[in-house]
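Dear colleague,

Following up on Tuesday's group meeting, I ran the structure prediction for the two-component complex that the binding team flagged. I've pasted the input sequences exactly as they went in, so you can double-check that nothing got truncated or mislabelled along the way. The C-alpha cells for the whole assembly follow below. Feel free to forward this to whoever is handling the docking comparison.

Inputs:
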Amino acid sequence: MTAAITPTEQHGARAHSDGGWDAPSGRAPIQARSERFASVAHDDFPAVTGIESEWKLTPVATVRALIDGPLDGSPYEYAVDGDASLVEWIDRTDARIGSAGIAEERAAANAWSSFEKALAITIPAATEAEPHRELTIRRSDLGDAPRATHTVITAKANSNATVILQSTGSATLSENVEIVLEEGANLTVISVQEWASDALHLASHFATVGRDARLKHIVVSLSGAVVRVNPSVHLVGEGADGDLYGLYFADAGEHFEQRVYLHHVGPNTKGRVNYKGALQGDGARTVWVGDVLIGPDAVGTDSYEQNRNLMLTDGTRADSIPNLEIETGDILGAGHASATGRFDDEQLFYLQARGITETEARRLVVIGFLSEIVQKVGNPALEARLHAAIETELARSAAEPKGEPA
Amino acid sequence: MSVLEVKDLHVSVETEQGTKQILKGVDLSIQEGQIHAIMGPNGSGKSTLAYTIAGHPKYHVESGSVTLDGVEVLTMSVDERARAGLFLAMQYPVEIPGVRVADFLRTAKTALDGEAPALRPWIKEVRESMSALRMDKAFAERNVNEGFSGGEKKRHEILQLELLKPRFAILDETDSGLDVDALKIVAEGVNRAKAATGLGVMLITHYTRILRYIKPDFVHVFVDGRIAEEGGPELADRLEDEGYDRFLSDASVA
C-alpha cells in the first residue's frame, strides 16, 4: 500500500500524490497532528518497519542502529564561540529536561533513554551592556559509534540571542534539542549540518514559545549521508511568533529530510515556514513534510508555510508534503504552497540574452533561489560562509552542465 | 558599418496542435545607426522574429539566415549572440529571485566585455543612467524584475540597453502598458543610447504612438509571417489613419 510518489513535472499540473482527502473514497486524517503519541521511553514505541507514515520516506535500514541499537550517551567535546559560561552539562533529573516537548518517535525516544548528561545553554535577560548575545556551539567528529545527545536551550524572559549549533565531521547520531522561550524572549537558533559524507543524523527539535516571544529557527543541511531534522514548534503564549526556515543542498547519494510541525496554540500568534532546497546528482533525495495545526484557542492566527525545490540534474527526487489543520474558524489567515521543478528556461534565457554564459546563469539562479533563506540568518560571518558553501556545492556541477539546444 | 541581415527566414513553433509556421520568409536589413519600425497586428510574427534572432530555444528555424556583418548568428548560443552585439529588450522580462539588479548588471557587463568594469566609473554610470530614466537609487538593491511594475520592467530593460551598449537592439513592444510619461522617459533612453553609440534599432510595436518619440528611418508592416509593405516614416502615418484592416483582409483571403 505504499503509493508511488513521483516528482512533480515542471509545468504539468497533477494531483497531489500524498493525501487525496478529496478523493471519492473520502479518506480522512487518522488523527490530528497534536494527538500523536509521545514518550521518553524507547520501548513505548512499536518496532519501526519502514511503512509508517513517519518513516516511509526515510532509509530506515541505513539508520536502524539509531532507531533500535544501543547509543553512547556520554558527554562529548564541544567548543564555544561567545560566553562559554552560559553552556554547561546538566543531569537527566534536571527540571529543564522535557520542558519543551518529548519524543514522538522511536529514534528520538532511543536517544532520550540513552543520554547521560544534557548540554544546557541558558540565555539571561538582555541588559543595556549586553542587548544581544551570540553563541556558536561547535561539535565535530562525534565518531562512527552510534551516539545520543540532548540539548536544552533556555531563553529567559526578555532575552535576545542567536545560538548557532554547528556540526561537522563524522557522526552516527540521534539527538533531541529542546528550546524554551520565556515571555518576551527573542531567540534565533540556527542548526547547521555540514557533516562528513558518511554521517547519519536524526534530530528532533522541540520548541515552546511564550507570550510575545519570538523564535527564528533555521535548519541548514549541506552534507551528510542521511540527515533528518524535525522541528516541532509550539506557539503557546499570546502573540508568540515563529519563523521556521530551512535551506538544504543535496548531492548524489545524500538524503536530507525535514518534518516541520508548527502548532498555533495561543491566540494572535504568527507563523511563517519557508524551506528551500536544491538537489543535484544521482540519488540526491530530499523530503519536506510541513504540518501546521491551528488549535481551538488559536484565534487571530496568521500562518503560512511553503517549500520550494530546485532540481539541478536528472536522477534527483524531492518529496514535498504540506498539511494544514484548522480547529478554529476565527483566524487572520492560513495558507501553504509547494513547488518542485527544474531550472526555469525563461530565467536562463533572460540572463544569457545579456551575454552571461549558461554556467554562470545557472549559478546565479541557484544562488538567488537559496539566498532568500541565507538572508534570514542575520549573522554576516555565517551568511558569508553559507554562500561560500553553496558556491562549493555548485562548483561540483559546473564541470558538467546540462546541454541546451543551440 | 555594421549590418544585421535577415534573409528568407522561416520559423515554426511546436504547439499542442502540432507544428505551426510563424515566419514564412522574412527579409530585412538593418544598418548601424538606423531605426526600423516593425509594425503589424497581433499574431503576425513580430515577437517571433525578435526571439528567433535572440536565440530563444522555443523557436525552430526551418530555413534562412540571420547574419551580423556576414557572420551567421543562428548557430550561436544565446549568450554568444549577446556578446556579438545583439540585445533584446523583452516585453515580459522574467523575475529572477535573489539576484540583485546591481549584481546582475555588473555580471552582464563583465560577461560582455570579458573583464569586470572599473568599479567607481561603473557605479557612476549606473547611477546616471538610472537617474535619467527616473529610477530610484533603491532600485539597484531590488531583485531582478521581482515585484516590478510594468513600467519599472521596461525602464529596467532600457537601463540595460544604455549600460550594455549593444550594436543592434531589438525592442519588443517596449511601449506596451506604458502611460505617456513613462513612454517619453523610455523613448528618451532609447534616443540617448542611439546618440551615444550609434546602434541600430529594430523597434517592434503594435501602435504608432511610440513613433512620435522615436523617429524611424524605415517602417515595415508585418502580416502573417511576412513583410507585407515597406516604406519611410510616412507609412506609419498611413497606418495611424487606416489601421491594419487593409492587410488583414488580404491575409485572410490568402
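Residues 3-253 of chain B form a domain with the Rossmann fold fold (CATH 3.40.50.300).

Cheers,
M.
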